[in-house]
Amino acid sequence: MLEQLNARADAIGRRAAGAAATRLGEQVREAVPGVSVSVDGTRVTVSGRRLWRRWLADPGLRWLGGLLR
């Protein structure tokens, strides 16, 4: 009984994490021009030229989780 409940909770959590990653990818594409965003399951990868320099200058890039609000 408890194993079924844990399995169900894990499945719900995986779906929610995937949905959040997809939303974050979309928000980053809209908010940060000139970068490439790829979403793979629950992983969001942001890449682009001079991204490190932009990351230092732009607080929006440092706090991507704020785009999920």
Set down the secondary structure blueprint.
Layout (H helix, E strand, L loop, with lengths): L1 H30 L4 E5 L2 E5 L3 H7 L1 H4 L7
Antiparallel strand pairs: 1-2
Description:
Helices cover 59% and strands 14% of the residues. With 69 residues, it is an alpha+beta fold. Strands 1-2 form a two-stranded antiparallel sheet. It is elongated. The mean pLDDT is 90.
In a few lines, what is going on in this structure?
The chain is elongated, with a radius of gyration of 15 Å. The chain has a two-stranded antiparallel ribbon. Strand 1 and strand 2 form a beta hairpin.
Structural class, from helix and strand content? alpha+beta
What percent of residues adopt helix (DSSP H or I)? Answer: 55-70%
Mean pLDDT: 90
Element order: H for helix, E for strand: HEEHH
Q: Enumerate the spans where pLDDT stays under 50 for 5 or more consecutive residues.
A: none
Percent of residues in β-strands: 5-15%
Largest sheet: 2 strands, antiparallel
Shape from CA axes? elongated
Estimated radius of gyration = 15 Å
Tally of separate helices: 3
| Major sheet: arrangement of strands | 1-2
Distance between the termini: 35 Å
Q: How many strand units?
A: 2
Essential attributes:
69 residues; alpha+beta; two-stranded antiparallel ribbon; 3 helices; 14% strand; elongated
